[in-house]
Amino acid sequence: MQIPILDIYITDASVITIVTVILFIVNFLLAGGLVFLERRSAQSVWAWVLVLFFLPIVGFLLYMLFGRTIYRQELFKLDEDDKVGLEHLVSEQLEEITHNRLTFANPIAEKHKKQIHMLLYNNQSFVTSNNDVTTFIDMNKKFSQMLKDIEAAEDHIHFQYYIFKMDKIGTELYKALLKKQKEGVSVRILYDDIGSRSLSLRNFSDIRNAGGLVEAFFPSKMPLINPRINNRNHRKIVVIDGRIGYIGGANVGDEYLGRDPKMGDWRDTHLRIEGNAVKSLQLRFMLDWNSHDTRNNMKHEDHYFPEIDSVGRTTMQIASSGPDENYQQIKYGYLKMIYKAKKTIHIQSPYFIPDQSIMEAIRIAILSGVRVKIMIPSFPDHPFVYWATYSNVGSLMKMGAEVYMYQPGFLHQKVFIIDDEVVSVGTTNLDNRSFILNFEVNAFMYDEDEAIKHRKIFESDIKHCEILTEDKYKNRGLWIKMKEGLANLISPIL
């Protein structure tokens, strides 16, 4: 029996049709996954669904780059013995606060025990009360002091930044770290693969050849491009000998020292900490490091966590958050501060695109008579983000918030203060990217002196600001209004 041969002629049109159908099927499946499987806000889900259906091809590519989430809940692991010890410490503090057995000599910390209790549910956020804090608002002074601390290091240096550039300041730091590694001080460097996209492990060959350890966070498995643009490690942590820690907003790059004419006189805030809070920073670094270097895992060793005598009186928690966690700890910390505020709220952030819960809390505070002051940059480094920021502060300004736009250069610090009592400084912006997508770390300080110090810095910054008035906002051009509208539409995924 002869079977006739069926000739099939495939035209260009049919190929396009097949590809289009496949793309629409993929879009449908992705949309279903967003709705039913992934842990997202309703605003974010709808934003991505709209992108996928109205931009079938471009939307798919955008989702692959920006939309994927982390499914590994156990990304950051501890050795079982270390985990037991940490959980014991945290549970002990929780129990003591719950039963009112934990008291603080610092009356401000005593007043805000509920917030301390809340942040304790993040195992790295145990509370310490013997810390001395130095605040840097000039990054030239910050890096100058850091170089001195690096030079004086005797045991180890743990160095973690979102952005590390091999420019003038980056090269200076690199040479200092290389020198200490050659002297026998253990150096570990962790950088983010997207934030430090100009770097590769080859740039650290001298340190690695000398015995130092270097890793990239979520490195690309493909040359030249990293498809995981979200879920980046935005933390900036330096720990030296387990006794000195740095945390704040500034990365490693010349622009953070005001050397980039485009960005002007860069304004940032960074902290240098001595005291037991450094142990929290060390633990955070250890968790981040162990998530990406299984061959040279860090374990709890005495030289990493030395005994520290009382060096100060600031009560502090180091809180961290990320897409691997069920609780948005730092956002909850901000919310608790807003609801606790009785007199004043001071916010400095380069990006002000909070979710509905934060916006509603601030509105309630304003309507309750709390004086709210918000400071943002006067120009963007990311256009869509800026216009969403401008729209949000404009709406709060109409309700009574005082909005200041910093003029000399880019304002990049992330500072949150209430009532001259509690202040938070760290890496977390007031946006969904920091709350949900990135890995962040903040220092929450319960100390009147620290809060007043940062409030006075805020007031000093006001001298270099333009006030956003209702007339100015009302008279903005049609083009700005259109950019605001578009930015607001896509703000859940910015």
What is the CATH fold-level name of the largest domain? Endonuclease, Chain A
| Total E-strand runs | 17
Spatial order of the strands forming the largest sheet:
4-3-2-5-6-7-1-8-16-14-13-9-11-12-17
| Structural class by SSE content | alpha/beta
Low-confidence stretches: 1-8
The largest sheet is: 15 strands, mixed
| Number of discrete domains | 3
CATH architecture of the largest domain: 2-Layer Sandwich
What is the CATH superfamily label of the largest domain?
Endonuclease Chain A
Report the mean per-residue pLDDT as an integer. 86
Outline type: globular
* Number of helices, counting only DSSP H or I runs of 4 residues or more: 17
The percentage of residues in β strands lies in 15-25%
First-to-last CA distance:
65 Å
Q: Cα-atom Rg, whole angstroms?
A: 24 Å
Name of the top-level CATH class of the largest domain: Alpha Beta
Proportion in helices: 40-55%
Provide a short characterization of the protein structure.
42% of the residues lie in helices and 18% in strands. With 494 residues, it is α/β, with parallel strands linked by helices. The protein has three domains: 12-67; 80-107 and 127-317, Endonuclease Chain A (Endonuclease, Chain A); 329-493, Endonuclease Chain A (Endonuclease, Chain A), CATH 3.30.870.10.
Characterise the protein shown here:
There is one protein chain. The chain is α/β, with parallel strands linked by helices. The chain folds into 3 domains: 12-67; 80-107 and 127-317, Endonuclease, Chain A, CATH 3.30.870.10; 329-493, Endonuclease, Chain A. Helix content is 42%, strand content 18%. The chain is built from 17 helices and 17 strands. It has helices at residues 12-36, 42-54, 56-67, 80-98, 107-111, 113-119, 139-151, 168-182, 205-209, 277-290, 329-340, 356-367, 383-399, 432-437, 448-462, 470-474, 478-490, and strands at residues 128-136, 156-161, 186-192, 213-217, 237-240, 244-248, 270-274, 314-321, 344-348, 352-353, 371-377, 402-406, 415-418, 422-426, 430-431, 440-446, 465-467. The strands form 2 sheets. It has a 15-stranded mixed β-sheet, with helices on both faces. It has a two-stranded parallel sheet with strand order 10-15.
